[in-house]
Write a structure and sequence with these properties.
This protein is 27% helix and 20% strand. By secondary structure, the protein is α+β, with helices and mostly antiparallel strands. The protein contains 15 helices and 20 strands. The strands form five sheets. Strands 2-1-5-3-4 form a five-stranded mixed β-sheet. The chain has a five-stranded antiparallel β-sheet with strand order 10-11-16-12-13. It has three domains: 6-87 and 170-229, Beta-grasp domain (Ubiquitin-like (UB roll), Roll); 90-161, DNA polymerase, domain 1 (Orthogonal Bundle); 235-457, Uridine Diphospho-n-acetylenolpyruvylglucosamine Reductase, domain 3, CATH 3.30.465.10. The protein has helices at residues 28-35, 97-104, 114-125, 133-139, 150-161, 192-198, 213-216, 254-261, 269-273, 278-283, 286-291, 299-305, 402-408, 413-423, 438-457, and strands at 9-12, 15-18, 54-58, 66-69, 82-84, 179-181, 184-187, 205-207, 226-229, 239-241, 245-249, 309-314, 317-322, 327-329, 332-333, 340-347, 354-360, 371-380, 383-392, 399-400.
Length: 471
């Protein structure tokens, strides 16, 4: 492919830029710093945890600027899109109010993390969210500072928010978004028909978001030399709400999913906010999280407890399967090579049921779960009439605990939960790792069942582990 063709265009800080002299499948972070010589964006952890490499991404059709970690995005994913780095926010001659506020409020010492914090603050100014302590804390939850302290940083954002000056972006439309980077070619099909044609390549990999795959995949991959990006496929971006179901396209981002469920399944809000930082939530997709088949994926236990169904698509057309039948083993599922998840059907909680979901992790924000538990149940006269339980971090796959549900059904709340606590080790087989020992996970599950009993007795709707206080 000729590197001077328009298919290699991106817009950097409003300037049309031709991607040339890129000999490998590199990250956007490497492109920015090494090729474009824009050194304001920093490399810290290189795994999406510190936020030093944060940039703003947009599609050229509107002014919505989404923060992402440039260390987790490959160049092939942003062809035809626009990115804004810290250099596009302002400079010493014409600084943005948030840059001035960081200086005047002593919100920067060594300054290494500062560009990332400013990018996160700008993303909040460009959103339609109210600016308060909660939204500020969420906006910077993916940015780490080691020397300044967060109080002056938060104060600087508050000071700048009085002006709330959003960044203006240029509008553009690029149609061809295919690019060859060294031995790797990226294709960006617009619909499922185009996608199927591309599977004629012998070696290919599907990519949606990439917060997991890009972290595990080496920079130069000789075997999987064709990447089919799913993010632009219109059929995978749908969302439909009926009286009974929520149908979500697999390439809806976690952040988009959060906005959709706020009013329909409010119990999911905390889980989704703790899924990761805004940088991760804007890039990661609901289908990608499910198909990675991680035993500690945050979404799977929630969707299992609600008896969700996933719709698959491939050369043989559409097919559907219950999520509980999707996983085969550690990081394994039933997807064939040419199949993708098309959408997820989530039954909306019935008015007669209560829904609880909890995640335990070493950090409250921006951390992988040690264990998670989701419970969907119906009670009457202190009797558990129906219950559905799913857990993560307790086996090699996210697990629907069908046998446990059976022995808890038909008993009083107290007897049912005591039975679960006394027999939980018969139904889960957690391992010991850096996040916690097997015994810790089992004891933590027992504690969550005690929490369930307290919530049911007090008729409490609070889901947050931060709000729960033991006696």
């Amino acid at each position: 492919m000729d590197l001077l063709q328009p298919s290699n265009i991106i817009y950097v800080n409003g300037k049309k830029t031709i991607i040339s002299n890129v000999d490998h499948d590199i990250t956007v972070l490497d492109l920015i710093r090494t090729n474009l010589k824009l050194s304001g964006t920093k490399e810290g952890c290189a795994e999406g945890d510190c936020g030093a490499c944060s940039i703003l991404l947009h599609d050229g059709l509107n002014s919505e600027l989404k923060p992402v970690n440039s260390c987790l995005v490959r160049v092939g994913q942003v062809v035809g899109k626009g990115i804004v780095t810290i250099e596009g926010v302002g400079n010493d001659i014409a600084p943005h109010p948030i840059q001035t506020a960081f200086s005047e409020e002593n919100a920067s010492q060594c300054g290494y993390c500062t560009p990332g914090f400013i990018i996160s603050g700008i993303s909040l100014f460009n959103s339609n969210k109210k600016i308060n302590d909660d939204t500020i804390n969420d906006a910077i939850s993916g940015n780490l500072c080691r020397c300044t302290g967060y109080s002056p940083i938060i104060k600087a954002i508050k000071v700048a928010s009085k002006l709330r000056k959003p960044l203006k972006t240029i509008k553009f439309l690029e149609h061809n978004k295919d690019i060859k980077l060294g031995n790797v070619t990226y294709y960006n099909p617009k619909n499922l028909e185009e996608m199927l044609k591309l599977t004629a390549h012998e070696n290919y990999n599907f990519l949606a978001g990439g917060t997991d795959l890009n972290l595990r995949r080496p920079i130069v991959n000789e075997k999987k030399n064709v990447i089919i990006c799913l993010d632009s496929i219109v059929e995978l971006k749908i969302n439909k709400i009926t009286n009974d179901n929520l149908i979500i396209g697999s390439c809806v981002s976690i952040e988009g999913f959060l906005e959709i469920v706020k009013n329909k399944i409010p119990q999911l809000v905390e889980i989704l906010q703790r899924f990761g930082s805004p940088q991760i939530r804007n890039q990661g997709t609901i289908g990608g999280n499910i198909s990675t088949s991680s035993p500690i994926g945050d979404l799977a236990p929630v969707l299992l407890a609600l008896n969700s169904k996933i719709n698959l698509f491939g050369h043989n057309g559409d097919t559907s399967v219950l999520l509980r039948d999707f996983y085969l083993g550690y990081r394994k599922n039933i997807l064939k090579k040419d199949q993708i998840i098309r959408s997820i059907e989530i039954p909306l909680p019935n008015g007669g049921y209560k829904f609880f979901c909890w995640k335990l992790s070493k950090r409250y924000d921006q951390d992988i779960s040690t264990i998670s538990l989701s419970i969907y149940l119906k009670t009457k006269n202190n009797i558990i009439e129906d219950i559905h339980i799913a857990a993560g971090g307790v086996a090699e796959i996210p697990k629907y605990l069908e046998s446990l549900c059976k022995i808890m059904t038909g008993k009083t709340i107290e007897v049912s939960i005591l039975t679960a606590i006394n027999q939980i080790d018969k139904f889960v087989q957690p391992i010991s790792d850096l996040r916690g020992t097997s015994n810790y996970r089992i004891e933590s599950l027992k504690g969550l069942f005690k929490r369930l009993e307290k919530c049911l007795k007090e008729n409490s709707n609070t889901m947050s582990i931060m709000d729960f206080k033991d006696e």
